């Protein structure tokens, strides 16, 4: 939830990354996220997430990864609305981690990823390295308490996918990136990188 008076809205921009950037290694405490989508249609989604310190062993099924998360795991349930202009309704509430883990372990449409955090300039960035069927996808996101305008975009961001629904986690839960990665990379080579121009001035660092 936003703490800047916007209520249950999130403001973020998302970018496709070709390979893990070196800055991710500066995070001493990466987080394993295992999340299930119980409903997803027309931009609306209901998500159950379990997250905690990333264990050394990161292969296995979603149920096995849930089991690998320790006592410090956190459970949440989130309702999302359609995104527009880098803004999306997102109401998140705490959920008992045992209940969250049991739901995720039994769910059909699951996304697993390791999240790294880094502070770059004036913004905090997260880098998500996806596991399982979504490997080798890497996405970078920046989130603010209000619209993400006049952004300094790091050099490791190959193209912006903020408005590409294929890179929403609920889509990836149903259509894993590994199944269409080659098609997307061919598309990127043909069309070249794109960045949202309606959110102030983009600066490339």
TrEMBL record:
Database matches in InterPro entries: CYTH-like_dom_sf (IPR033469), CYTH_domain (IPR023577), NeuTTM/CthTTM-like (IPR012042)
Gene3D superfamilies: Hypothetical Protein Pfu-838710-001
Active site: 37 (proton acceptor)
Start and end residues of each CYTH domain: 8-174
Protein name per the record: CYTH domain-containing protein
